[in-house]
Specification:
alpha+beta, tRNA-splicing ligase RtcB, six-stranded mixed beta sheet, globular, binds ligand LQESDW3C, binds manganese (II) ion, 3'-phosphate/5'-hydroxy nucleic acid ligase, ligase, EC 6.5.1.8, RNA repair, nucleotide-binding
């Protein structure tokens, strides 16, 4: 039995008491954070309206595939950014985004782009904003703020849980996906939108999750030019949500969780681990993009529901 399995009740209680999931749940007293002082919240009218909502939802996770979980980290190779010796550690992994404010920003500027792009109806979702226009610049700033807000939410989630279970943070790894970056490739500045992908520039430390039962991988990017310094952001789904609901029963899902010694709090059949691709195959397919320096095996997983 591992340390986390022995201390399961305490860690599970911390997840129940100190995380909030779904559309409505919020913390009784949201913490403050520097991100709320950002100029963008004052200077962009849409963000001014979203400031209160951002504070209210701070440190919460959404529904669907958002999760917060404790697991076992095995570091196999040292890395200067991590300042950790190879060995075993307790890990805390969270997956969520910029909550309601990100969705409102995307909706608002997509509508604005559609209004000014003369595209046929079936292609309207491809409407764009020129980044050299006022609206385009505004969107870029708002999207960056949404990214900073999401990162701040993760640190709040981690801060609350570390306070609840004790201990200290020895190393932290951030992994962004479904976001856009301005980068130089082949001497040209371009916008790289990594949808279902994550940065994997040379020496960049990242994390690629598997599922709630499969281990994920701590990786270092190899800066592969043809992938625009990117790698897969996770195993990814093999079956869509509605198919997953039909394919398995709750008792089949429970059996898989028990086999892998994983405790799930909340969750649904839509997020059954069997609905995801096998991460080992995904990692084998992207050997040229990243080197593996460790793993994270989920043990206690909290989701909405
Ligand atoms: N450690 C866990 N990983 C999970 C879980 N559910 C899904 N996943 C993996 O994360 C990515 C998230 O990507 P997204 O595109 O759905 O945002 C997904 O591809 C899976 O590989 C989980 O409960 N725990
Ligand atoms: Mn995601």
């Amino acid at each position: 039995m591992t340390y986390l399995e022995g201390a399961k009740d305490r860690y599970a209680k911390a997840l129940v008491d100190h995380t909030r999931f779904g559309m409505r749940e919020v913390h009784a007293s949201p913490n403050d954070h520097g991100v709320f002082e950002s100029d963008a919240f004052r200077s962009i009218p849409l963000l001014r309206k979203l400031h209160g909502k951002a504070i209210k939802q701070f440190g919460t996770s959404g529904g669907g595939n958002h999760f917060v979980e404790f697991g076992e980290v095995t570091l196999t190779a040292p890395h200067p950014e991590l300042d950790l010796k190879p060995g075993s550690y307790v890990g805390l992994l969270s997956h969520s985004g910029s909550r309601g404010i990100g969705a409102s920003i995307a909706q608002y500027y997509t509508k604005a782009a559609m209004a000014q792009c003369p595209l046929p109806k079936e292609a309207q979702q491809l409407a764009w904003l020129d980044l050299d226009t006022h609206l385009g610049m505004e969107y870029w700033i708002a999207m960056q703020l949404a990214g900073e807000y999401a990162a701040a939410c993760h640190s709040d989630i981690h801060r609350r849980l570390i306070r609840a279970v004790g201990g200290r943070i020895m190393a932290r790894v951030e992994h962004h996906h479904n976001f856009a970056w301005k980068e130089i490739h082949e001497g040209r500045e371009i916008v790289v939108h990594r949808k279902g992908a994550t940065p994997a520039g040379n020496g960049v430390v990242g994390y690629i999750p598997g599922s709630m039962v499969d281990k994920g991988y701590l990786v270092v990017g190899r800066g592969h030019a043809e992938s625009l310094h990117s790698a897969s952001h996770g195993a990814g789904r093999m079956h869509p949500r509605n198919a997953a609901r039909r394919m398995w029963s709750p008792s089949e899902m429970k059996k898989v969780l028990t086999q892998h010694r994983v405790t799930l709090i909340g969750g649904s059949l839509e997020e059954a681990p069997m609905a995801y691709k096998r991460i080992a195959e995904v990692m084998a397919a992207q050997k040229e993009l990243v080197d593996i320096i460790g793993t994270f095996q989920p043990r206690i997983v909290r989701m909405d529901g």
